Amino acid sequence: MCQLLGMNCNVPTDICFSFTGFHRRGGGTDVHGDGWGIAFFEGRGVRLFVDPQPSAHSPVAEFVRNYPIRSLNVVAHIRKATQGRVALENTHPFMRELWGRYWIFAHNGHLPEFHPHLDGTFLPVGDTDSERSFCWLLQNLRSLFGEKAPDPVALYDALKVLSRDLAGCGIFNYLLSNGECLIAHCSTHLAYIVRAAPFAVAHLKDEDLSVDFSEVTGMKDRVAVIATVPLTDNESWNVMEPGSLYLFHEGEVAACEVLSGKTKQG
Hints:
Elements: E1 3-13, H1 16-24, E2 36-42, E3 45-51, H2 59-65, E4 71-78, E5 94-98, E6 101-110, H3 129-145, H4 152-167, E7 171-177, E8 182-186, E9 191-196, E10 201-203, E11 210-212, E12 222-227, E13 238-239, E14 244-249, E15 252-258
């Protein structure tokens, strides 16, 4: 299946180090060769890069890897297709507008029987279960909150119910952000690390590259990195429990809960 990468920070930070290892998994050190994408929030704007080529061999990925875009929230994805052909319109992350903000979504999993009624508020462009579930989530959030955007806590509470319902349809690991916070749902596999002072050296699993974060960060910086599989081999990552939903805000875990109900395994 696909793999996810997310970052949530308290100060704008670049993701070059993590993305260097992550992008190698797209047809290099792993088999996720059906496209890739990454989204960076900058204020109310988003820089979105998507490419149906394998990320390990993509000139666009090489450009992103060497371009230190600083962001408070980043969502990235490398694809191993299960539904939908390999095409640009089926490449994650997906973006929509709601309440005057962009929303970014990426999914790792499989929802073979999920064919919900969509009322036309949000419609998929491609033919993946992932984009379909994103439209369904936003449709329900719009129905629940009307014209007024919820705060992160209210958003998290609503997504607890919606995520539990979707997880009952299959495998539903996802990252969702509106630029203010980052939500992560673990259906089968997700892990995270929060880097804060005192910072140390980190070494990538997928490429022989290390960075001493004490030399490139401030003492008050705090960065949460979320990945399907840990990106480094010399740090202690926290493995999320299947069925759990996390809210990341300003570089730390603001809420986490294991949702009731069964989660399908895969």
